[in-house]
C-alpha cells in the first residue's frame, strides 16, 4: 500500500510539473486563455525597448504605458510609436504573427542637439578615411589665423584624430603626423591633397603651389609618423600599387561572403562600408541582379520591414550578413544618375595614372562622403546639403537631427555616438572653420 501511494504521489508530482511546464511554454509562446471564448488564443509577443527608457508607448493610437514593456498581441497589423518629450518620435509598423517574438529597440534623438568643438584654431583640408575611423587635417601657424586665442597650442602641421573604435586603442586624442616646419616653403595649403592607403596605415600628402603645380609628395606612416619619406620621384609607382591593393581588398570582402551571393556582389554592387560591428554591409547598386538566399527558409528578422532581393542600379542597400536580409534605401534619388556615372569611372581599371588615382579618391569622397554608419550599427547618418538626418538600416524612421550651419567638405561620425561636421560659428572673428562633434542622443 505504501509503495502504491508513493508511486501515486510521484505520478501526481510529475503530472503537475508537466502541466506547469506546458503552461509556461504556452504562455512564453504567446498563448493566453480567452475567457469569452473559453479557449486558448495564440498571440505574438512584442518587446518594446527604447533609448532613453520610460518613453511613451503608443500602439494603434492608444497609449499602452512606457518602455520597456512586453505586450501580447493578437495576430494583425500594428503601428507602434515611441516618443518622449525633448526627443524625436519613432514609428514602425509590425505584422504580428502568433508565437513570434518582435523587438523595437527604438533610438530617439535630441530635438535640440549640442555642439562640442574638437579644434579651436581653424583647420585646412580636413580629410576622412574611407572607413571613417580617422580624420586628418592641417592646423596652420598662429600668425596665419586672425585673432588667435592666447591659450591655443603652438604646434602646427598635419594632425590625425581618431573617430572609430578600431583606432582608439592605437591613438589617443590627436597626433601630430607632420610638423609645419617640414612643409615646402612655397606650398599653398588650401591646394594640399591627402590620400589614405587602402589599409589606412599610410598617408600620402601632395603639396601644390598656388597655380596647382605639384612640388612635393610625402609618405607618412600613421603608426610611426617620424619616419615620413619624400616620394616625389616614386609616388606614381606607389599609387599604382595602392590601386591594385584596393581592387584586391574589394575581392577579399566579396570572397568573405557566402559563395551563393559572391557573383551578385561582383556584378551588381559597388561596396562602401561595413557597419562598426562588421555585421552589415552598405553598398550601392550598379546593375540589376538577384541576390540568392543564403538562409532558406528565411529566419525571423529583427526588422519587420520587407526586404529586397533584387538589386537595382541607383539605389543604396544594406545587407544584414547575420540574418541574410537585404534592405533597399532610397537615400538620394535625385543624384542616382550622377552616382552611377561616377561609379562607372571609379570602376575603370585600365591605364590608371597618378592624376587619375588622386581624382578617383577625391571623387569617391565626393560621391559617397554624405553617408556614414552610426556607432550602434543600426542607423545611418545622411548629409543632405542643409540638414543632417538619421535613418535606420532597413530604410525606416528618417529623421532630421541637425539643421544648423555646416560645410560640405567634411562629414562623419564618432565611435561614441556623435556626428562630425566642419563649420565656422563665428566667421567675423575666425578666418577658418573648425571641427565640431554634434551630440544627438
Write the layout of secondary structure elements.
Blueprint (H helix, E strand, L loop, with lengths): L1 H27 L2 E4 L4 E4 L1 E5 L1 E2 L4 E4 L2 E5 L2 E5 L2 E8 L6 E7 L4 E3 L2 E2 L6 E4 L6 E5 L5 E6 L17 E6 L2 H4 L5 E6 L13 E4 L5 E7 L5 E8 L7 E2 L4 H21 L3 H10 E6 L5 E6 L3 E2 L19 E2 L4 E5 L4 E5 L6 H11 L7 H15 L2 E3 L5 E5 L4 E5 L6 E4 L8 E3 L4 E6 L10 E6 L2
Parallel strand pairs: 3-10, 4-11
Antiparallel strand pairs: 1-2, 3-7, 5-6, 5-8, 8-9, 12-33, 13-14, 14-15, 15-16, 17-18, 18-19, 19-20, 21-22, 22-25, 23-24, 25-26, 27-28, 28-29, 29-30, 31-32, 32-33
Helix pairs in contact: 5-6
**Total number of distinct structural domains:** 2
Specify the biggest β-sheet: 4 strands, antiparallel
Side by side, the strands of the main sheet go: 6-5-8-9
Helix vs. strand class: alpha+beta
Average pLDDT, all residues: 85
- Stretches where pLDDT is under 50 for at least 5 consecutive residues are 22-30, 144-154, 166-173
Q: Helical segment tally?
A: 6
Global shape: globular
Distance between the termini: 71 Å
- What fraction, in percent, of the residue positions are helical? 10-25%
How many strands appear in the DSSP assignment?
A: 33
Taking all Cα atoms into account, the compactness measure Rg is 28 Å
Beta percentage is: 35-45%
What can you see in these coordinates?
By secondary structure, this protein is α+β, with helices and mostly antiparallel strands. It folds into 2 domains: 2-107, Immunoglobulin-like, CATH 2.60.40; 114-250 and 332-439, no CATH class. The chain is 20% helix and 35% strand. It has helices at residues 2-28, 165-168, 235-255, 259-268, 336-346, 354-368; strands at residues 31-34, 39-42, 44-48, 50-51, 56-59, 62-66, 69-73, 76-83, 90-96, 101-103, 106-107, 114-117, 124-128, 134-139, 157-162, 174-179, 193-196, 202-208, 214-221, 229-230, 269-274, 280-285, 289-290, 310-311, 316-320, 325-329, 371-373, 379-383, 388-392, 399-402, 411-413, 418-423, 434-439. The strands form 10 sheets. A 4-stranded antiparallel beta sheet has the order 6-5-8-9, with no helix packed on it. A 4-stranded antiparallel beta sheet has the order 12-33-32-31, with no helix packed on it. A hairpin with a 2-residue loop joins strand 5 and strand 6. Helix 5 (336-346) packs antiparallel against helix 6. The longest helix has 27 residues, at 2-28. It is globular. The model is unreliable at 22-30, 144-154 and 166-173 (pLDDT under 50).
Amino acid at each position: 500500500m505504501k509503495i502504491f501511494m508513493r508511486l501515486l504521489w510521484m505520478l501526481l508530482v510529475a503530472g503537475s510539473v508537466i502541466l506547469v511546464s506546458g503552461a509556461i511554454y504556452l504562455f512564453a509562446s504567446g498563448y493566453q486563455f480567452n475567457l469569452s471564448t473559453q479557449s486558448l488564443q495564440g498571440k505574438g509577443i512584442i518587446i518594446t525597448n527604447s533609448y532613453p527608457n520610460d518613453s511613451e508607448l503608443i500602439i494603434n493610437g492608444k497609449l499602452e504605458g512606457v518602455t520597456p514593456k512586453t505586450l501580447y498581441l493578437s495576430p494583425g497589423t500594428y503601428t507602434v510609436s515611441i516618443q518622449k518629450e525633448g526627443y524625436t518620435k519613432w514609428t514602425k509598423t509590425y505584422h504580428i504573427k502568433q508565437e513570434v517574438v518582435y523587438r523595437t529597440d527604438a533610438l530617439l534623438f535630441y530635438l535640440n542637439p549640442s555642439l562640442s568643438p574638437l579644434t579651436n584654431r581653424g583647420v585646412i583640408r580636413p580629410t576622412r578615411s574611407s572607413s571613417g575611423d580617422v580624420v586628418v587635417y592641417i592646423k596652420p601657424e598662429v600668425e596665419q589665423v586672425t585673432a588667435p586665442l592666447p591659450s591655443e597650442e603652438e604646434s602646427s602641421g598635419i594632425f590625425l584624430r581618431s573617430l572609430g573604435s578600431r583606432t582608439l586603442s592605437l591613438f589617443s586624442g590627436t597626433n601630430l603626423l607632420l610638423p609645419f616646419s617640414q612643409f615646402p616653403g612655397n606650398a599653398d595649403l588650401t591646394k594640399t591633397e591627402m590620400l589614405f592607403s587602402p589599409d589606412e596605415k599610410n598617408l600620402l600628402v601632395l603639396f601644390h603651389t598656388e597655380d596647382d603645380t605639384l612640388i612635393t609628395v610625402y609618405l607618412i606612416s600613421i603608426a610611426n609618423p617620424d619616419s615620413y619619406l619624400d616620394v616625389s620621384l616614386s609616388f606614381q609607382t606607389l599609387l599604382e600599387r595602392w590601386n591594385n591593393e584596393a581592387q584586391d581588398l574589394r575581392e577579399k570582402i566579396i570572397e568573405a561572403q557566402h559563395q551563393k551571393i559572391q557573383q551578385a556582389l561582383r556584378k551588381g554592387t559597388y561596396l562602401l562600408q561595413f557597419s562598426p560591428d562588421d555585421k552589415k554591409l552598405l553598398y550601392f547598386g550598379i546593375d540589376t541582379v538577384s541576390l540568392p538566399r543564403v538562409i532558406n527558409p528565411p529566419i525571423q528578422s529583427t526588422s519587420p520591414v520587407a526586404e529586397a532581393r533584387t538589386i537595382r542600379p541607383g539605389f543604396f542597400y544594406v545587407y544584414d550578413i547575420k540574418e541574410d536580409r537585404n534592405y533597399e534605401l532610397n537615400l538620394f534619388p535625385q543624384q542616382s544618375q550622377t552616382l552611377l556615372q561616377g561609379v562607372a569611372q571609379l570602376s575603370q581599371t585600365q591605364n590608371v595614372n597618378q592624376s587619375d588615382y588622386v581624382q578617383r579618391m577625391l571623387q569617391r569622397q565626393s560621391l559617397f562622403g554624405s553617408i556614414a554608419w552610426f556607432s550602434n550599427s543600426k542607423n545611418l547618418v545622411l548629409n543632405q546639403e542643409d540638414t543632417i538626418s538619421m535613418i535606420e538600416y532597413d530604410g525606416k524612421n528618417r529623421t532630421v537631427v541637425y539643421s544648423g550651419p555646416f560645410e560640405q567638405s567634411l562629414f562623419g561620425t564618432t565611435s561614441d555616438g556623435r556626428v562630425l561636421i566642419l563649420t565656422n560659428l563665428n566667421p567675423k572673428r575666425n578666418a577658418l572653420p573648425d571641427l565640431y562633434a554634434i551630440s544627438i542622443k
